[in-house]
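Proteins fold reproducibly. Look at a concrete instance:
___
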Amino acid sequence: MYFLLKVSLFILLIINYSYANNNIQEQLDIQKEVIESQAKRIDQLEVIIKELKDNLISVENKDILKDNLKEKASESSSKKTEDVISSSKSKKYNPETAFFGPLPQLRSADGKYSAGFMGLIQLESAVYNQEANYNTNNDLSDGFIVRRAGLTFAGVSEKDWIWFLSYDYADSGDNPHDGLRAAMTIYRGFKPWWLFVGLFGNSVGLDASNFSSQRQFMEAAMPQATFIYGAGSPAMGVAATYRGDDYYLRFGVYGEPYKNTSTDDEGMGIHGRLAWQPYKERLKAFHLGATGYYRSANASDTFTNGLRNSSLRFRSKGETAVSGDFIIDTGIISDLDSYHYLGYEFAMVDGPLSFQSEWGILNVTRKTDENPQFSGGFLQAGYMLTDDARNYNAYFAQFWRLKPKKSIMEGGIGAWEVALRASQIDLSDKNIDGGSAISYTLGINWYMTAFTKTMINILHTDSTGPLSEDFNSVGARLQIEF
């Protein structure tokens, strides 16, 4: 009996042990599932945390980048300018610093307002060799002039407003450069659109759009200067620019030239440029575009010989300004209804080599049946003798300041460039005998620093017409920007 009791107890223990064992295994399996589920959640949380961390780092980097840009913006203006005007393709264009010279800028405590002065001085001389004009017995005069002495006060307000006030103290008698040159405001809050309002250049054509201080020759090409400045520059107007990935667009509405003394209603015009820029690095650029304007005449209330008067005329001194004598001139074009200009632009930079060309046709519509057509263009090429390149600025589809790899202030020889240009213009058609001219120029440019330059131009010009002059000349310019 006792033996049976022990056996029964032993069997019961085995059953309980087996049952407990099974129960423990089930619990272990349940715990394992819970642990695996938690592990998956932890893995998911780790992924989420990593993504959040990366995003936070990205945001922090952007903030750091913004802080770095602010720190760089507060550095000395000479350092800023060097960064902007460098020919290195890695540099970014910054309009807030590119237009300023080496002088320090004034800044408000909150950084929302900045302003500064910049200036340009061009001292020029020339000697001429020619026979006096048969009609006027005129003789081109050797001499010295202050070609330009400009002072500009410009700044940025509330980040998106840029303003300019510019005056030229050297009255050279040249429409785009004497007296008040600019009084304008730019709004850039609608990027990539920029809006311009006020008095400024009409920006038709590539050579005329370049600042006088940044051209490859002492004077703008004769044909484009004649057709574009004659239509009004500077003039009061409203304009807009748009910058795409590989193109630049500018158009605007302008009145008459600022120095037009007519008391009649102003003529109005629509002006524009469109440039394709498949390559737009500073050391390698390609620019192909179209440019032009359509303008109505100023409606005069006075008549001469039964023909309504106007203020429109096209004339040129050639591609030298020291003598100041005009060699071609249409005179006032009377009985005017409208006139329009259409031309092409081309430019290319490939390391030390550069090309630039423009050609255009100007049609004048008169109330009579005599509608003259004028034309002209130029072709020029340049080569840098030093390890430098002409600086194409795609942001405004023009050329900009060149910074030598090693200036004379750094113990170097600066940047040296030779350039050739041929230009032709014809202002005679129908009953208008304005004359025609062909000019050839050899230019030698020495960029001593980013802000000082010496230019020598050797010209030969042949012309026909009542005021024509056939002459050779040698001109020199010392240019200082500050």
Summary: Residues 70-93 have pLDDT under 50 and may be disordered. The CA atoms of residues 143 and 240 lie 41 Å apart. The radius of gyration is 35 Å. The longest strand covers residues 113-130.
